[in-house]
Design brief:
single chain; Aldehyde Dehydrogenase, Chain A, domain 1; 2 domains; six-stranded mixed beta sheet; 39% helix; globular; disordered N terminus; binds NADPH dihydro-nicotinamide-adenine-dinucleotide phosphate
């Protein structure tokens, strides 16, 4: 491990290197499994944001003028270096989030593909040449936005950041990142990877700190051309309105309340296999968590019985142990939110079928553990069915016909993702097309790829990550019109009929 981060105190990453915060302050990052202090991290504030934006502004001209194939080479090299340092990244990601190693090894193992995919897009992207009337050459260019800001959460710290960094770099932008203060370590460490890949100093900067301080300073900074936030819907509204004051572009990947809709004909065991993954992966702390399991009445009881039985068998344990299936929640605050909603669910009259408490035993005394929890008898108007809990809680609801299933699935303010489980291909597409959700899986859940657009309808967000849509959202269009005529430029000569606008 390079000496720079062997020490327990991590700096900010600005202009291609580590430095302390201007205030000299640090904050502690905990390991959620036992609440031990993992690292002290420099606490960035407005002065540090100014320094990071200035570094990114200085770096922008050089990087934006670097030919796309050279940018792609740096990105391919970054992918290679990241693969070489994967064990280190996975270990740190597990420690700072508490998520099971088996999940994060699989998730982080794919992240180099984002740099390869977007690097290739930058190389192959062609400017368009729309038709134009008369002796003109008319073409458009996609040019980078400038310095962009990324504000990211703690649940998938490196994946979510990668979804923003790769298209930003490919398009030629420079950037300042404000990661969650709960999990800033891998975003910081990525600075070394990008530097070693040959990225010019100042293109990628990270200022860890708190949302209301460093986050807000970045959001309202006049030198920022776009703010891309992944976080809760309320944070999205705050950040979007701050950004709006400067007409800064805003993209928000926000909250969700994903439905899994299971039709008759699907084996209850298959529904339960899917639900265990969709509901409890990341200890339920994902924006596309299958938090509402909407099951046809004909298979409802069999699904519930098996779901309850198998939920009891999920293996909680040390997140670094490859056999562990469910780790702790990320923080005391997150566990308090989950406990509050479990109380609300019981008060609302839902049936607590399994879980609903902290696990017992010495291994769970410290840290933020909570048992995977299933509520049955849930009505869609209950708060546990409407509000994002962001924890290992699934609400099971029966339905009688397709219309009712669609109404239940669409019946929240969110619209990020949904999954449809059926053996009937016509029904699969018919129902998928009526889901008010930006991502719909058929007989699958939570599958993600650098080429597949990701983002929400309704209150789940604005904009798209992944795919060419994300690349386009990190560019702006410049139109260049060339008059090829050698006739004299004289707008009085057209005999009274203004031809200039024809
Ligand atoms: P938060 O909304 O609490 O925070 C997200 C980021 O925004 C953090 O870095 C936070 O800083 C920062 N922030 C908070 N307030 C401000 C502010 N006023 N100005 C600027 N920045 C601010 O989300 P969580 O970190 O708790 O993550 C969970 C949420 O993220 C869930 O709602 C989840 O659904 C959503 N999410 C959405 C995804 C998607 O793809 N749609 C994917 C993953 C998560 P700080 O850490 O200091 O609070």
């Amino acid at each position: 491990m390079p000496a720079e981060h062997e020490q327990r105190t991590w700096g900010l990453w600005i202009d291609g290197g580590w430095r302390p915060a201007a205030s000299g302050r640090t904050f502690a990052v905990e390991n959620p499994k036992d609440a031990s202090v993992l690292a002290e991290v420099a606490e960035g504030g407005a002065t540090d944001i100014d320094a990071a934006v200035a570094a990114a502004q200085r770096a922008f001209d050089g990087w934006s003028e670097t030919p796309p194939e050279a940018r792609a080479r740096v990105m391919a090299k970054a992918a290679e270096i990241l693969r070489g340092r994967m064990d280190e990244f996975v270990r740190i990601e597990v420690d700072q989030t508490g998520r099971a190693r088996r999940e994060l090894a699989a998730q982080l193992g794919r992240l180099p593909e984002w740099y390869e995919y977007f690097g290739a897009l930058a190389r192959t992207h062609e400017d368009t040449v729309p038709p134009f009337n008369g002796p003109f050459l008319n073409y458009t260019r996609r040019v980078p936005l400038g310095v962009v800001g990324h504000v990211t959460p703690w649940n998938h710290p490196l994946l979510i950041l990668t979804k923003k960094v790769a298209p930003s770099l490919a398009a030629g932008n420079s950037m300042v990142v404000k990661p969650s203060e709960l999990a800033p370590l891998t975003p910081l460490l990525l600075g070394e990877v990008l530097r070693d890949a040959g990225l010019p100093d100042g293109v990628y900067n990270v200022v860890p700190g708190f949302g209301a301080d460093a986050g807000a300073a970045l959001t309202r900074h006049q030198g920022i051309r776009k703010i891309d936030l992944t976080g809760g819907t309320e944070t999205g509204k705050t950040v979007a309105s701050l950004a709006g004051r400067n007409l800064t572009r805003f993209a928000g990947e926000l909250g969700g309340k994903a439905a899994m809709v299971a039709f008759p004909g699907v084996a209850p065991q298959a529904v339960v296999n899917a639900a265990l993954f969709a509901s409890f992966v990341a200890t339920g702390q994902t924006c596309v968590q299958g938090s509402r399991l909407i099951v046809h009445r004909s298979i409802h009881d069999a699904v519930v019985e098996e779901l309850v039985t198998r939920t009891r068998t999920l293996r909680l344990g040390d997140p670094q142990d490859l056999r562990t299936q469910v780790g702790p929640l990320v923080s005391e605050r997150q566990r308090a939110i989950v406990e509050k909603y479990v109380r609300i669910g019981q008060e609302e009259g839902a049936t607590l079928a399994v879980g609903g408490r902290r696990p017992e035993g010495a291994a769970y005394e410290r840290g933020y553990w909570y048992l995977p929890t299933v509520f049955t008898g849930v009505r869609n108007d209950m708060r546990i069915a409407q509000e994002e809990i962001f924890g290992p809680v699934v609400c099971v609801m029966p339905f009688d016909d397709e219309e009712e299933a669609i109404a239940l699935a669409n019946g929240t303010e969110f619209g990020l993702a949904a999954s449809v489980w059926t053996e009937d291909v016509r029904q699969a597409h018919r129902v998928a097309h009526r889901m008010q959700a930006g991502i719909v899986w058929i007989n699958d859940h939570h599958r993600i790829d650098p080429a597949s657009p990701w983002g929400g309808f309704k209150m789940s967000g604005i904009g798209r990550e992944n795919g060419i849509a994300a690349y386009h959202e990190y560019t702006q269009i410049q139109n260049v019109i060339v008059n090829l005529s050698s006739a004299p430029f004289d707008w009085f000569a057209d005999d009274g009929a203004m031809k200039r606008y024809s």
